[in-house]
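dumping this here so i dont lose it
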């Protein structure tokens, strides 16, 4: 019961108690193309942000006012006289556009929605994530229509594949075969190869990419838009027939969250080899870790059996520290199930009357269940080997042995910050009973509840995949 109470407490923390210091605001005008200026409250200087639509990152504590310039019939730029502050909308998100979400919820009240957002049970029942978005939407009545958005920047989400080369080749094919024929003025494309390092911190890569806009949180959509100055997101779905890939682009206006029909979305074909078994292995197996964590164990129990083969256990509640190198998945903030087979490197200390230093390497099958409130449940089972150094002063015992090591466990983790994750879980280990024997007792394994403070570093795996 104590373990599940801890899980519930961590789930509460994962639902937004940790807040970012900054927010990203989507700014758009009707018609588009107005020049946007920003004035911080209490200051005289106006900062030019550029032409709408655009994203702006500001401090949560900062307050300011937006003003707008427009070209009159003589193409002279004038201030419209409109002053606007950003609006906030909060609620549970389904498969709806950003504009629709904002229009429905901007007047529902901020405080009530934020307080409601820390109830994970409501989000679990609804099967939807709770989010807040910040927008500035202004109609400039005297501004003439400027035609199409002058400059479009297309950010391509990596198509799904175990091989980065397959994904990148398909993205380049869209750029060369479709975009190049429809390019206007200063339009440009940002390919996955250029954006993958940042995308990985948002849980986006070619192994398990989002297939549509609604699979990405609004918060992350805004982050992508602000980081790359993007106006559109490109999703490339495909059907394979041998080596021939038929690709269907789906392109969203990033500020409105709707498909833009006036974009290069022609279906095209390209020949790329897609290796079936190898692709599955690359997608399922993760050979290199992407997270390192310091672990604190409590409610520890050392398992064993006496000379009569009767099972016994020794509970010791003193805290034990350890280190793990593991593979994790970035939370997707929605119902999603994934699997992974990956090596896990561990160092831990077992026992009280007998002091055991355990250096282990196991290959674990991990089943991930992503939750709408945020965070991920993980069930793992695996096996491998361990080197164990044991000492027991009361018995004048010391040994160093190699043994098999089996493990099974359940855990829950979430990211309060971009690279930092927190985990609570329960794990059971088993070893060869013949390897560690002290005072007529054979040690058969160990179990504990653990807490982890981890650091996420996906760059190593991405670098290796580039080389391979």
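and the seq i came up w/
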């Amino acid at each position: 019961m104590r373990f599940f109470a801890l899980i519930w407490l961590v789930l509460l923390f994962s639902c937004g108690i940790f807040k970012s210091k900054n927010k990203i605001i989507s700014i758009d005008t009707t018609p588009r193309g107005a020049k946007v200026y920003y004035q911080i409250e209490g200051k005289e200087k106006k900062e030019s942000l550029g032409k709408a639509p655009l994203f702006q990152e500001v401090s949560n504590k900062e307050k300011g006012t937006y003003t707008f310039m427009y070209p009159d019939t003589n193409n002279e730029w004038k201030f419209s006289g409109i002053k606007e502050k950003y609006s906030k909308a909060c609620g549970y998100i389904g498969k709806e556009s950003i504009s629709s979400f904002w229009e429905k919820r901007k007047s529902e009240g901020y405080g009530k929605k934020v307080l409601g957002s820390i109830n994970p049970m409501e989000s679990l029942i609804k099967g939807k994530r709770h989010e807040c978005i910040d927008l500035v939407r202004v109609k400039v009545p005297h501004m003439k229509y400027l035609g199409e958005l002058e400059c479009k920047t297309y950010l391509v989400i990596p198509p799904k594949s175990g091989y980065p080369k397959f994904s990148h080749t398909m993205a380049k094919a869209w750029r060369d075969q479709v975009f190049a024929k429809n390019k206007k003025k200063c339009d440009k494309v940002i390919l996955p190869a250029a954006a993958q390092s940042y995308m990985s911190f948002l849980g986006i890569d070619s192994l398990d990419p989002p297939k549509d806009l609604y699979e990405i949180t609004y918060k992350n959509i805004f982050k992508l838009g602000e980081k790359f100055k993007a106006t559109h997101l490109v999703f490339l779905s495909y059907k394979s027939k041998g080596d021939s890939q038929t690709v269907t682009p789906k392109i969203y206006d990033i500020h409105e969250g709707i498909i833009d029909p006036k974009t290069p979305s022609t279906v095209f074909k390209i020949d790329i080899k897609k290796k079936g078994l190898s692709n599955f292995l690359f997608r399922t197996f993760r050979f290199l870790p992407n997270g390192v964590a310091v672990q604190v164990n409590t409610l520890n129990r050392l398992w064993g059996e006496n000379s009569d083969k009767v099972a016994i256990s020794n509970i010791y509640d003193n805290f034990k520290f350890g280190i793990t190198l593991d593979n994790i998945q970035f939370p997707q903030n929605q119902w999603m199930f994934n699997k992974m087979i990956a090596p896990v490197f561990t160092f831990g200390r077992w026992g009280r009357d007998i002091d055991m230093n355990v250096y282990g390497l196991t290959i674990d099958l991990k089943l991930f269940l992503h939750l709408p409130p945020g965070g991920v449940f993980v069930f793992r089972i695996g096996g491998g080997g361990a080197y164990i150094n044991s000492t027991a002063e009361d018995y004048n015992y010391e040994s160093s042995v190699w043994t098999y090591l089996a493990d099974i466990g359940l855990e829950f983790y979430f990211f309060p910050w971009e690279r930092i994750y927190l985990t609570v879980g329960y794990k059971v280990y088993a070893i060869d009973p013949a390897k560690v024997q002290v005072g007529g007792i054979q040690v058969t394994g160990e179990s504990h509840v653990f807490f982890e403070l981890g650091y996420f570093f996906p760059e190593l795996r991405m670098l290796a995949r580039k080389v391979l």
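Residues 165 and 239 are 17 Å apart (CA to CA).
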